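pinned: reference chain
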Amino acid sequence: MEREIIQTLDGSTTIHIKEWNECYHSKHGAIQEAKHVFIKNGLALFPNQSISILEIGFGTGLNTFITYLESKDSGQTIDYVGVEAYPVSADEVLSMNYIEELKAAESESVFKEMHTCNWEEKVIFSDTFTLTKRKQFFEEIDDVEKFDLIYFDAFGYRVQPELWSTAIFDRMYKALKPRGVLVTYAARGVVKRSMIEVGFTVEKLAGPPGKREMFRARK
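pinned: its structure tokens
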């Protein structure tokens, strides 16, 4: 499928898939969305703790990189696992302007290494952050009570409804530790029903810029 790098409304870039008219991040602001959905409404729930995070859709590495930057000052020690079935190419990654937009020049080598390090290996990026990238389809995830937090950042229901099925959320529920949390930009009724069916308690929160609502689910 044909892909292009586009700029979102907050100045940060994302990948646009023309055939689907779907982006990896919100057109209203890739960085704003990541910080609102995954940091403010997810990571911030676990202050001064050692936590494990599962990201569904490693993609451009934006959520991972922002989480790494947060870990430098948050008092958190983070063991991060990013799952991606179709890795983004090096050329696309180097076209992203996250370093400039996040004012993170001192961590540019970290962002690059996140994309060049080996898959299926845990890599230590600092005393407070480790990353394991897994090249895997979401339906193959079989972790049990391993994660405190899930960033559910799959492509939208409109283009890939199978990624938002009861079967997938059952795997997410099993992968979380008791009282674990899942956050996602989505706010469709069908998604909420699938979450509730597998046992989640779901709350609707204010969404990021350009989106009225989002979900946070608790085990």
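why pinned: DSSP finds seven helices and eleven strands in the chain. The first strand starts at residue 3 and ends at 7.
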